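Troubleshooting: if your tokenizer reports a length mismatch, compare your output against this known-good record of 54 residues.
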Amino acid sequence: MKKNALITSGGDAPGMNACIRAIVKTCLNKNIIPVGYYDGYKGVMENRFKIDFR
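Known-good structure output:
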């Protein structure tokens, strides 16, 4: 199974919610597991993530 990690800066960014939604929906439509990390790179280093987006 393929996975796609999603990392953002964690700061305010107009339109970011719509972008994240589009990425997650596209992943789910193509049978790719989206993985979102909390708090940008800090979340990657601390292994803090979310997989279930349904």
